[in-house]
Amino acid sequence: MMTGKQIWIMAGVATGLTGIGLYMYYQDREKKKVVARQLAASLMQSVQSRPSKPITPKQTIVPAKPEFPKGDGFPLRLGSEGKRVERLQVWLMRNFGGVGTVNGKFDKTTEERLLRYLKTRELNEETYNKYRMEKPVYEQIIK
């Protein structure tokens, strides 16, 4: 059992160590502030010493966006929308888990899950029917 004197000594040591740690923290913080101020000052000097050039607009080339199918006709792929895509998303979540929303839009997340679990980027009608994705959830085949 520790005596009262030993407890006071331990408390003093702990307080001293805490004080030293805080002192070192604030010293380091102050050094970082000084370095940051010096860096900002040198950047301002370099910006001010450069001759200014007029900014001219550059011609930007916008790449053509690929055409994605609308609706839920087969094959289901990136850009497809509709009830069949919604059923696909439910099937993927039920059989392979994961988080997300069932929104009826074949987006990048749906494509990644389909690629990971069925090893394809688009879903054809044969596979859709094989797993009975058009059926209610309780009648679907689990892979």
From TrEMBL:
InterPro entries under this entry? PGBD-like_sf (IPR036365), PGBDSf (IPR036366)
Secretion signal: which residues? Answer: none
The reply to whether Transmembrane figures as a keyword in the UniProt entry is: yes
Q: Which UniProt keywords apply?
A: Membrane, Transmembrane, Transmembrane helix
- Region annotated Disordered sits at 46-75
Asked if Transmembrane is a keyword of the record, the answer is yes
Gene3D superfamilies per record: PGBD-like superfamily/PGBD
Which chain regions cross the lipid bilayer? Answer: 6-26
Protein name per Swiss-Prot or TrEMBL: Peptidoglycan binding-like domain-containing protein
Species this protein is from: Fulvivirga marina
